[in-house]
Design a protein that fits this description.
eight-stranded mixed β-sheet, alpha/beta
């Protein structure tokens, strides 16, 4: 079952990450993050200006619905006087005849200037269709196109001013063109851009599109970013028309009551007038700040593979490095998203950060629970080897850790063996032998635990203890020496009792060494023993075997660490079995009094 789970985990993680990206279910959350990242105020085209039909103009000239075409005709006459704008774009519907004389005057002025673009309205069937990037556009089936009245249509360029709304109601996309009855009709800003390039004698570079000629664009400025003046100030001569020479001039609604404002991602606190949106789309076309979505299938696969790699790696990392990995991954995702967007490709930037945050949360929570469970098991297990009060104290520390499987540590090792035990056991009943052995092993165990050591094992009538493993232990070499002296002190009382009860006397031999050793679980997967191995351990065992009855032999390495606090006689260099060179040893006598 575990093997099956192991083989199924990676494909399942890959599939879930892929489906999350491909389904685009986090569209709204993605735009919440992407909008401030992508949409920045960077107006660079100072040639785009706006003449606003604002409240001041309405107060001066009345409701625009009651205007004849004299007003736009007068405006053309003023702007196309001594100098003229490159393009004059009326973001206004001039459908049908209003008053014959003014209609003709406006159409004639537009035809003579050859720099006028007017707006048309594409009427589609009522159903909507969703594009692959989440935006909604009307059905491809066009019922009709509301053109300017015939004379104006013949004397000006035109483009449809219909907006493309995303599923959250914001405008981030625009449609480049539609085909109707054999005619290709460009959008209003695209028609303005084309006429501007034509008059400048350069080729218009139209953007790549997707799904019914739609493209994404970057806003260049919030409301008020483009130079805006009131229409009445121009008509009444308060603004010199020469200020618009060579410019692209938009004329459009700029008052709340005209119901031509929409939600835009660059300013979510307020809506933007339609004429300003058209100006932003125009600058995006002129500056190449347009984009199309990446291939959803390939991008989803790429995100899934990256997440799978993080999933496989993060479980092996320490919490701090796991957090750093997620932070780096999220930052890289945002930076890459911005770079791709600047390069003309839109990707969803929310899925990978969400997946990484979920993965990090799982890693931290599961790691915490696993550590708590492991700590509990280890504490219960090592209470059998280490003084329980020491284990309890250490288990409460934040730096409590045990490496299972073996680690290199600096330790002190103590071996103690009963001298004369074999002859004693031959002369006594087995029950008596066990009783004596248990008393002696209790003595050594209590001495070890008293000084914070770890009982490694009993080897017949011998005891092995280590200090500074599995836990860090302060002054561990001195503690090992104190343990040896405590055993020596306690054994005198035990020797007297045994002499009195059995008429036999036993003694001890102790060896203490310190140095580097491998400490951990040694064995196989079904039988393990927590112990220490290495030359340090072997030397301690050889010291114990060379110790005379009642003698404590310590190595030079031990003596150098505690010489200011112990009394020891120099024994000199002695040969030890299994070592080519002898070891300089000391005979421990006691502790110095302060």
């Amino acid at each position: 079952m575990k093997r099956l789970k192991k083989y199924l985990t990676a494909p399942l993680v890959l599939l879930c990450a892929f489906l999350l990206c491909y389904s685009n279910v986090l569209y709204g959350l993605d735009k919440l993050i992407a909008d401030p990242l992508y949409q920045r105020e960077t107006v660079t085209n100072n040639s785009i200006k706006i003449i606003a039909i604002d409240e001041k103009t309405i107060a001066a000239y009345g409701d625009p619905k009651t205007w004849t075409r004299d007003i736009p005709a007068r405006l053309l006459g003023l702007l196309n006087g001594e100098t003229s704008p490159a393009v004059i774009a009326f973001d206004i519907m001039y459908v049908g005849a209003v008053e014959q004389e003014s209609d003709a005057a406006f159409a004639l002025a537009a035809a003579e200037a050859e720099n006028v673009v007017t707006a048309v309205n594409v009427v589609r069937e009522t159903d909507l269709q969703q594009a692959s990037d989440g935006s909604y556009v009307a059905s491809n089936r066009i019922e009709l196109v509301e053109y300017p009245y015939e004379a104006l249509k013949e004397g000006s360029s035109y483009g449809f001013a219909n907006a493309v709304f995303d599923r959250d109601g914001y405008i981030r996309h625009a449609q480049l063109s539609v085909d109707y009855e054999g005619e290709t009709i460009y959008s209003f800003p695209a028609a303005v851009y084309s006429l501007y390039c034509q008059r400048a004698g350069v080729d218009a570079v139209l953007p790549e599109t997707f799904d019914d000629n739609v493209f994404a664009f970057s806003y260049s400025g919030r409301s008020g970013a483009y130079e805006t003046v009131s229409l009445c100030d121009v008509l009444d001569g308060r603004i010199d028309p020469r200020a618009f020479a060579g410019a692209i001039v938009f004329v459009g609604a700029y008052a709340p009551g005209m119901q031509d404002s929409y939600a835009v991602p660059i300013q979510k606190d307020s809506q933007m007038y339609g004429v300003e949106i058209q100006a932003n789309i125009l600058e995006a076309l002129m500056e190449g700040k347009t984009a199309t979505p990446a291939n959803l299938l390939l991008y989803s696969a790429a995100v899934a593979l990256v997440f799978l790699a993080c999933f496989l790696v993060i479980g092996r990392l320490k919490p701090l490095f796991a957090v750093l990995l997620c932070v780096v991954g999220i930052a890289a995702d945002l930076v890459l998203g911005r770079l791709l967007y600047d390069g003309g490709t839109v990707v969803s930037i929310i899925e990978l950060p969400i997946l990484l945050l979920l993965l990090l949360g799982y890693r931290l929570i599961s790691g915490y629970l696993s550590e708590r469970l492991k700590r509990h098991r280890v504490v219960q297990a090592f209470k059998k080897y280490v003084a329980p009060q020491v284990v309890e104290q250490l288990s409460k520390k934040d730096d409590f850790s045990i490496v299972l499987g073996g680690e290199n540590r600096e330790i002190a090792v103590l071996f103690v063996d009963i001298r004369g035990f074999t002859p004693l056991s031959e002369s006594l009943q087995p029950e008596q032998v066990v009783e004596i052995l248990n008393e002696y092993l209790s003595l050594t165990t209590n001495a070890i635990f008293k000084n914070g050591g770890t009982l490694d094992k009993f080897i017949g009538d011998a005891t092995m203890a280590v200090f500074n493993a599995p836990f860090d232990l302060d002054d561990y070499v001195y503690r090992a020496v104190c343990t040896a002296l405590d055993i020596a002190s306690g054994s005198k009382e035990l020797e007297d009792r045994l002499q009195e009860r059995f008429g036999r006397k036993v003694s001890f031999g102790i060896g203490v060494n310190c140095g580097n050793a491998v400490v951990g679980n040694i064995g196989c997967d079904f039988r393990m023993d927590y112990t220490a191995i290495g030359d340090t351990v072997n030397t301690a065992a050889r010291l114990e075997s060379n110790a005379a009855a009642g003698q404590i032999l310590i190595s030079e390495a031990v003596f150098l660490k505690v010489r200011d606090r112990v009394i020891a006689d120099e024994v000199g260099e002695i040969p030890l079995k299994g070592k080519q060179q002898g070891v300089f040893v000391y005979s421990l006598k006691g502790l110095k009094t302060v």
